[in-house]
């Protein structure tokens, strides 16, 4: 696409926004359009002419400035200035003048006392899109972005969205760490960062608990190590131990890998309490039969750890399974030929080659454990971690946004530290074993001792997992599983999902229907957006060279590394007032999910693109295709598995996310997980479990359906699963 | 055919408006933030809709979460009225000027404790129910250990309850803060902290949520759970083997409150709801919804299962003083230092 085409399209778009679409947001929906072109539905041109928004004249003037050259067919670098000016004018005026008139009092000499200005609407949206288009066209005309206007527009557009929906809200929220009682206080900031509540080592010498940072680190490290080792055991048994030859083994392993992905928060914790709590089923059994005293060991580090490993081990398995299959056996065969025993081959050849995958699996377990909120909340007992501490600093009985922001910064530092460490550790070596040279032999069988060790660990764990999910399945259909009343009932399902028929039409009377419908809607809308935007960004980052590429990549990772509660509160603070007013709508939920799950699409896309030779792109370019055609005809079809993964993953996370959306749901748009949290709070475990079962069934159907439609693609939580080209 | 098409069109329009920024309520609507159990929220809203024809949109969140939301939305409020939830955050909202002053004509029908709290909040909040603080114990577990049934606060410091008491953390829970403030008022500061340190050895867990100890006592996860009595009653009626204790030294109470949010978009309807929620008919819904607090209207029927205030030694709880942010910090800091940090 040439710069001129883009610039013309942008001009048309902005002009429509100026003359036709209502400039401000419609507070009462489309019914307000009746008053067009006056009152609340007035387009900007009407507002300019009657003088009520005179400070927006620059918008019209800038557009008039851009028009003559474009009509004559010339697109110059000056367009960039005009585009930037448009965006600045709209946002500047929007922030300067809010619902209560002037926000920035230092502008009073210039603006006087302007009337209140509501939020930006469709007209402003069109003008902004036009502004970005003009900016991109100008950059392309100057030869930036490979002089390709399409790439320029994508980069500018994505960058704009990321700044607006990721960067600004977070900076706004985290800057609270710098303030105390509304005043700038760097000393308080320093004190918060080194506060004993975070760093205290009292637990080493006394009975008091340690700082939350140490707790969090300990939990995350243990989760990472144990789930990686378990996952390795599973993978070795699956790939080298011959388990997957049997139907049962293959089915069991497959179920293991899907279940944790589609499990709503809290429900595993609840099941663990039912099993191992002081009055739990297993506990009671142990007491009756073996006189093992009943204790409360599940509340605290052991319980949280167990719940997190249940979720993470299958994901480690997915990663390691892929890596193990990708190791070419030729090196192992060579070692065996030279007389090495099986154990030695494994220790000196296979194990070193697995290192990158082991690091990835550990990192994933570590980071997911840092971000986990539901399990520590239910099972934590006295054991506090950063994510729960942050939540209660915001929503607890002692409200302290400054403390919450400082703790969030610490959590962020831990996450990025882990990423940096991994990059540093892996950066120095090469691990390629797959070459293009013919058959590479048969993989070595597992050493006998190792195989038995793996089997001895893996099968009991499998039974344990089955037990936990069995409890979940049963729990929704018995009277009160918490107290051991196991008589069958439909009552819980009925409370949530009662349907009655009135005049031949179904009436959804159950209290859970509204939230279920909203959840499915929001998930269905956000999943394709997440996948699409993620893959586009991946393509830009992996295949295009432009200034600010690193920054763009960093911003896509940012929202993933930040605790959900912080994202949620930062969203209400940023989008509750004009110029961008979104709270109370379903749109804010969609946006939150899209930008929170974006990293998955991006990572998956980058990993998949790394497998596709650049020469294909080059061939397409040589034959005269532009970036747009290459993307559409060559790259996207090859990326199909990555797209499917991103789609399924973002649908599933949108249905199971809780901490980010707890503050964003409204009366009209409630979500399933928030409903479940309320039930857990009220102690109605059975209803919570019943609802979770319904969600599990829906998600299972969706994941399997997507697989059926597009062929099997691997699912990975939070990371790029190994996808081979053309798989 | 036409109805079908109209339905489709309406559905489409609804779907689109749902995605529109700031699509707020039209005339005759009301947005309620509800902070009691869903089970009670729903029939309340349905009854109000039936009584007035106003369309209600209701969100249920805990009082802490609602407070956070109202604070974050202060510049452009979304909710109209905040109904239910323990009084402290309502008092705090009044202190932070987040809620609107309103004097309901129904004020005269209320119990003196409700009007007193309203006066202390300069009429920015009003009591809709009250619940006394106390504890519940699991009878099965008690019989198993052959311990004498506890009746006073002081009993909880006895060595036979070692590791058997559960209470929430005052940092995160209003219930636990009420307990802290109550003990300070009942015993005096010095003895109260001595008692709390002694009890600390018996505490197995400081939970985050205030209702959790009642639940844990009901399932036997702990022997004693310190809680608001009505939470324990709910468990008892559901069939749990618990006994409920109003401590002999006297105890404090919470006033579940209601506040109109400053800048409410449907102010007229918010006031209508406010007045209606103080009527005996509206307050009678609690009992039908398994909530056994004491209603604030003198003429409202008291659920027969509710713990009566006549049988409980209630202290004269000073809500204005103990609800203020400064007092809160003054009390919680020494608790953390002297009680929580101690050995168990």
The total count of strands of chain B amounts to 11
**Approximately what portion of the residues of chain B adopt beta-strand conformation?**
15-25%
Full CATH superfamily name of the largest domain in chain B = Periplasmic binding protein-like II
CA-based shape of chain A: globular
Q: Average pLDDT across residues of chain A?
A: 83
Structural class of chain B: alpha/beta
What gyration radius of chain B follows from the Cα positions, in whole Å? 22 Å
Number of domains of chain A: 3
The number of strands of chain A is 8
Q: Write the CATH fold name of the largest domain in chain B.
A: D-Maltodextrin-Binding Protein, domain 2
Please give a structural write-up.
The complex is a heterodimer of chains A (727) and B (344). By secondary structure, chain A is mainly alpha-helical. Helices cover 66% and strands 3% of the residues of chain A. Chain A has 31 helices and eight strands. Chain A has helices at 3-19, 44-49, 57-71, 78-96, 108-111, 122-141, 149-174, 186-193, 196-199, 202-205, 212-239, 247-258, 267-276, 281-290, 301-326, 330-337, 342-371, 374-379, 386-395, 401-426, 448-475, 491-497, 513-543, 549-558, 564-575, 586-611, 614-622, 627-638, 640-656, 672-681, 685-710, and strands at 97-98, 101-102, 179-180, 183-184, 478-480, 485-488, 499-502, 505-508. In chain A, the strands form four sheets. Chain A has a two-stranded antiparallel sheet. A two-stranded antiparallel sheet of chain A has the order 3-4. In chain A, a hairpin with a 2-residue loop joins strand 1 (97-98) and strand 2 (101-102). Chain A is globular. The two termini of chain A are 31 Å apart. The model of chain A is unreliable at 434-438 and 713-727 (pLDDT under 50). Chain B is of the alpha/beta class and 344 residues long. Chain B has two domains: 28-130 and 254-307, 3-Layer(aba) Sandwich (D-Maltodextrin-Binding Protein, domain 2), CATH 3.40.190.10; 132-253 and 324-340, D-Maltodextrin-Binding Protein, domain 2 (3-Layer(aba) Sandwich). Chain B has helices at residues 2-19, 38-52, 63-72, 87-95, 112-120, 139-145, 174-187, 189-200, 212-219, 229-237, 267-277, 280-288, 319-323, 325-340; strands at 29-34, 55-60, 81-83, 99-100, 126-138, 165-168, 203-207, 224-228, 242-245, 253-261, 294-295. In chain B, strands 1, 2, 3, 4, 5, 6, 7, 8, 9, 10 and 11 form an eleven-stranded mixed beta sheet that branches. The N and C termini of chain B lie far apart (74 Å). Chains A and B meet through helix 19, helix 25, helix 26 and helix 30 of A and helix 1, helix 2, strand 2, helix 3 and helix 4 of B. Chain A: It is a multi-pass membrane protein. Chain A: Keywords: Cell membrane, Membrane, Transmembrane, Transmembrane helix, Transport. Chain A: It is found in: Cell membrane.
């Amino acid at each position: 696409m040439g710069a001129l085409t883009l610039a013309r399209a942008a001009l048309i778009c902005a002009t429509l926004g100026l003359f036709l679409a209502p400039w401000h947001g419609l507070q009462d929906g489309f019914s307000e359009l009746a008053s067009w072109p006056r009152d609340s539905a007035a387009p900007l041109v009407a507002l300019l002419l009657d003088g009520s928004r005179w400070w927006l004249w620059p918008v019209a003037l800038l557009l008039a400035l851009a028009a003559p050259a474009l009509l004559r067919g010339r697109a110059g670098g000056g367009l960039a200035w005009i585009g930037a000016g448009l965006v600045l004018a709209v946002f500047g005026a929007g922030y300067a003048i809010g619902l209560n008139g002037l926000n920035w009092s230092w502008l009073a000499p210039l603006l006087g006392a302007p009337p209140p200005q509501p939020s930006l609407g469709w007209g402003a949206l069109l003008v902004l899109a036009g502004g970005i288009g003009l900016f991109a066209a100008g950059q392309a005309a100057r030869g930036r972005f490979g002089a390709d206007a399409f790439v320029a527009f994508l980069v500018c557009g994505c960058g704009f969205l990321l700044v607006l929906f990721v960067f600004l809200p977070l900076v706004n929220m985290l800057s609270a760490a710098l303030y105390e009682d509304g005043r700038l206080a760097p000393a308080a900031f320093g004190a918060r960062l080194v506060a004993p509540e975070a760093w205290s080592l009292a637990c080493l010498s006394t009975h008091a608990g340690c700082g939350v940072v140490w707790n969090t680190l300990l939990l995350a490290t243990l989760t990472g190590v144990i789930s990686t080792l378990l996952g390795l055991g599973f993978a070795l048994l699956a790939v080298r131990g011959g388990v997957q030859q049997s139907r049962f083994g293959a089915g069991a392993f497959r179920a293991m890998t899907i279940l944790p992905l589609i499990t709503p928060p809290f429900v595993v914790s609840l099941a663990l309490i039912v099993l191992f709590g002081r009055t739990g089923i297993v506990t009671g059994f142990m007491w009756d039969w073996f006189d093992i005293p009943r204790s409360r060991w599940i509340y605290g580090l052991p319980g949280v750890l167990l719940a997190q490993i249940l979720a993470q081990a299958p994901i480690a398995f997915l990663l390691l399974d892929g890596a193990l299959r990708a190791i070419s056996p030729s090196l192992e065969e060579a070692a065996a030929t030279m007389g090495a025993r099986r154990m030695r081959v494994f220790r000196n050849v296979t194990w070193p080659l697995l290192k990158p995958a082991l690091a990835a699996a550990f990192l994933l377990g570590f980071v997911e454990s840092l971000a986990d909120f539901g399990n520590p909340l239910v099972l934590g007992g006295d054991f506090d971690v950063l994510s729960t501490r942050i939540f209660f600093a915001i929503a607890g009985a002692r409200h302290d946004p400054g403390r919450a922001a400082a703790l969030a910064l610490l959590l962020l530092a831990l996450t990025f530290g882990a990423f940096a460490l991994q990059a540093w550790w892996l950066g120095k070596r090469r691990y390629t074993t797959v070459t293009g040279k013919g058959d590479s032999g048969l993989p070595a069988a597992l050493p006998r001792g190792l195989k038995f060790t793996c089997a001895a660990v893996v099968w009991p764990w499998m039974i344990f997992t089955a037990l936990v999910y069995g409890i979940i399945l049963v729990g929704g259909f018995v009277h009160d599983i918490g107290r051991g009343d196991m008589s069958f009932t439909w009552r819980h399902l009925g409370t949530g999902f009662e349907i009655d028929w009135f005049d031949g039409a179904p009436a959804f009377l159950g209290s859970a229907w509204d939230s279920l419908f909203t959840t499915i809607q929001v998930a269905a809308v956000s999943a394709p957006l997440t996948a699409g935007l993620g893959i586009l960004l991946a393509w830009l980052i992996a295949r295009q060279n432009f200034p600010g590429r690193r920054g763009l990549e960093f911003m896509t990772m940012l929202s993933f590394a930040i605790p959900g509660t912080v994202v949620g509160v930062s969203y209400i603070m940023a989008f509750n007032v004009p110029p961008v007013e979104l709270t109370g709508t379903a749109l804010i939920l969609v946006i939150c999910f899209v930008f929170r799950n974006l990293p998955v699409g991006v990572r998956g896309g980058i990993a998949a693109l790394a497998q596709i030779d650049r020469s294909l792109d080059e061939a397409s370019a040589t034959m005269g295709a532009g970036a747009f055609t290459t993307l559409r005809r060559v790259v996207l079809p090859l990326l199909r598995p990555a797209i499917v993964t991103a789609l399924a993953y973002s649908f599933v996370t949108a249905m199971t996310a809780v901490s980010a959306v707890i503050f964003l749901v409204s009366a009209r748009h409630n979500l399933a997980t928030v409903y479940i949290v309320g039930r857990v709070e009220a102690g109605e475990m059975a209803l919570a479990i019943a609802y979770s079962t319904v969600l599990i069934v829906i998600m299972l159907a969706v994941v399997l359906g997507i697989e059926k439609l597009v062929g099997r693609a691997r699912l990975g939580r939070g990371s790029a699963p190994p996808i081979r080209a053309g798989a | 055919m036409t109805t079908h098409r109209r339905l489709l069109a309406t559905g489409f329009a609804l779907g689109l408006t749902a995605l529109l920024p700031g699509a707020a309520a039209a005339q005759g609507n009301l947005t309620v933030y509800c902070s009691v159990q869903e089970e009670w929220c729903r029939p309340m809203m349905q009854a109000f809709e039936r009584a007035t024809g106003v369309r209600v949109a209701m969100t249920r969140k805990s009082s802490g979460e609602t407070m956070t939301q109202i604070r974050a939305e202060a510049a452009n409020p979304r909710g109209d009225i905040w109904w239910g939830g323990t009084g402290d955050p309502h008092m705090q909202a009044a202190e932070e000027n987040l809620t609107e002053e309103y004097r309901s004509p129904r004020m005269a029908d209320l119990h003196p404790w409700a009007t007193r709290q309203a006066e202390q909040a300069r009429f920015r909040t009003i009591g809709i129910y009250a619940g006394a603080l106390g504890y519940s114990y699991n009878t099965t577990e008690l019989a198993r250990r052959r311990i004498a049934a506890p009746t006073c606060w002081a009993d909880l410091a006895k060595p036979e309850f070692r590791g058997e008491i559960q209470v929430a953390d005052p940092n995160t829970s209003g219930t636990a803060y009420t307990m802290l403030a109550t003990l300070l008022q009942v015993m005096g500061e010095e003895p109260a902290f001595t008692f709390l340190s002694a009890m600390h050895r018996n505490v197995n867990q400081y939970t985050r949520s205030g209702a959790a100890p009642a639940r844990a006592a009901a399932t036997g996860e702990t022997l004693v759970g310190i809680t608001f009595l009505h939470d324990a009653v709910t468990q008892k009626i559901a069939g749990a083997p618990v006994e409920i204790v109003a401590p002999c030294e006297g105890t404090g109470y919470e006033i579940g409150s209601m506040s109109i949010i400053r800048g409410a978009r449907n102010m007229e309807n918010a006031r209508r709801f406010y007045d209606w929620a103080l009527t005996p008919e509206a307050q009678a819904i609690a009992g039908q919804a398994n909530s056994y607090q004491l209603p604030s209207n003198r003429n409202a029927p008291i659920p027969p299962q509710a713990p009566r205030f006549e049988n409980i030694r209630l202290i004269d709880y000073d809500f204005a003083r103990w609800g203020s942010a400064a007092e809160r910090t003054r009390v919680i800091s020494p608790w953390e230092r002297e009680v929580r940090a101690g050995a168990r």
